[in-house]
Specification:
The protein contains nine helices and seven strands. The protein has 281 residues and is α/β, with parallel strands linked by helices. Strand 4 and strand 5 form a beta hairpin. Helix 1 packs antiparallel against helix 2 and helix 3 runs parallel beside helix 8. The radius of gyration is 22 Å and the shape is elongated.
Length: 281
């Protein structure tokens, strides 16, 4: 992505401080013999250095997220930092991953999720290009699977069934544990992506769908850290429709009016929709 010079400068600062954090953790993480280091065992010197560079990257990331309009991620990040300030999260905690249970810094793991919003490796770029291409062609997916759409769930089920071939960790159908919690229709944790699905049959119902998505976005902003089962830095919004009178330009205008966060990315997909008949009383 081609960023403005001031944003590029912030990204470079964040990369520099992330590198310093990794170096500090790396020196400490050498261990001796069969001793497995953990955050609680970190010597004071390393703790001070780690804390110092964390404060540096903390304020750079806040500036980055504010400048680029990533409101959802900004609120998540600030909420996470507040847990650190209140000693409810251990800045030096260790996580173990891989078959051999390799120890690593949980803080660095979380920071990397935010950093990946601004630069990505080849695999992540490929995953996003592939997923966007599939979602853009989801009308063909519905046709391929011979789905007669009568409700939103039909679209959701078809997307999940097709993407399951590529992303084994995809899931849907999460329920809210509290009335204020918000959960995406579809989640793909391995690429930090969530998908929302809406279905409309005229402009009025389309406007309602967009307004519902805006409510969802604001709900994710509010619940931020506490209610997220996983970190999501991309939200793809599937707006399926069956009307000819609304153009892509009209949809884009309706979307822009709501001032969505930049990481909420819409798809306007024309499909054949069988509107269910109203049952007589």
């Amino acid at each position: 992505m081609d960023y403005k010079p001031e944003i590029k400068n912030l990204i470079n600062q964040a990369i520099k401080y992330e590198k310093y954090l990794k170096e500090v953790w790396g020196y400490f993480d050498l261990g001796e013999g069969d001793v497995v280091p953990s955050g609680g065992d970190m010597p004071d010197l390393y703790r001070e250095q780690f804390g110092f560079y964390f404060e540096k990257i903390r304020y750079v990331l806040i500036s980055l997220l504010e400048t680029t309009g990533n409101k959802t991620l900004l609120n998540q990040f600030i909420s996470w930092c507040s847990l650190i300030d209140k000693k409810e999260y251990d800045l030096f905690s260790t996580i173990f991953w891989g078959e051999d249970g390799v120890p690593n810094s949980q803080t660095l793991h979380i920071l990397s999720n935010y950093m990946n919003c601004f630069y990505a490796d080849d695999k992540e770029m490929f995953d996003n290009i592939l997923l966007k291409r599939i979602l853009n062609n989801s009308a063909q997916v519905l046709s391929l699977l011979d789905i007669n759409v009568t409700k939103e769930q039909d679209c959701t089920n078809a997307i999940v069934k097709f993407l399951k071939i590529i992303y084994s960790d995809i899931s849907h159908g999460s329920t809210r544990t509290r009335s204020k919690d918000y959960y995406p229709d579809i989640t793909i944790p391995s690429i930090n992506t969530a998908i929302e699905v809406k279905l409309s049959y005229d402009e009025a119902s389309l406007v309602t769908c967009i307004e519902q998505l805006k409510i969802d976005q604001d709900g994710y902003d509010i619940t931020a850290v506490e209610s997220y089962p996983h970190f999501y830095n991309k939200f793809y919004c599937m707006c399926f429709h069956s009307h000819d009178e609304i153009t892509q330009e009209r949809f884009s205008a309706l979307w822009t009016e709501r001032n969505f966060n930049v990481n909420w990315i819409p798809f306007f997909i024309k499909i054949k929709y069988i509107k269910p008949k109203k049952q007589r009383n």
